[in-house]
């Protein structure tokens, strides 16, 4: 999880750099390439997953909702700073376009000091000692055996569950309508004009 987030932040910094240099290069194509790179990044689902997994169970819902709050706050700050009086002027809009790289840079610098998520360490890597160390680093000293037991139960449950590949998911008729709905809703959000506004 953590490595994926770090790689994703590198992608965002590259995208921000490309968009920020578009005026100097006099290339609107660079804006399109940078926005495409921002669009294919996995920021939102990865953040939700990582924050949810590193949070104690009693704070997990709160932690996931704060991710959405800060995502919405970021959009609002972007819209406010895009006003003509701030960064929306003809000379400063490249700075506005490149500003999406700032949170990625902050996370790229700070994330290495955070541990990997305990469920990932235990369920996918089988590293029980690493899981206990991560839990102590995240939640402090104390007795956390109940949380470790919950992760072990989830791991046992997942052994009996077949994980489908993307192609298998698309071919399985039991998930066809759910897949259609997700695609339609996602496409509608992208095409409704909210991003342009």
What does this protein structure show overall?
Its main location: membrane. GO terms for molecular function: D-glucose transmembrane transporter activity. It is a multi-pass membrane protein. Residues 1-27 form the signal peptide. Keywords: Membrane, Signal, Transmembrane, Transmembrane helix. By secondary structure, the protein is an all-alpha fold. The chain folds into two domains: 1-114; 162-196. The protein is 72% helix and 0% strand. The chain contains twelve helices and no strands. It has helices spanning 2-20, 22-25, 28-40, 43-54, 60-81, 93-98, 101-110, 118-123, 128-139, 145-159, 166-171, 176-191. Helix 4 (43-54) packs antiparallel against helix 5 (60-81). The longest helix has 22 residues, at 60-81. The protein is globular and about 60 Å long. The two termini are 32 Å apart. 14% of the residues are buried.
Please give the radius of gyration in angstroms: 20 Å
Low-confidence stretches: none
How many domains make up the 3D coordinates? 2
Number of helices: 12
Describe the structure in brief:
With 197 residues, this protein is an all-alpha fold. It is 72% helix and 0% strand. The mean pLDDT is 81.
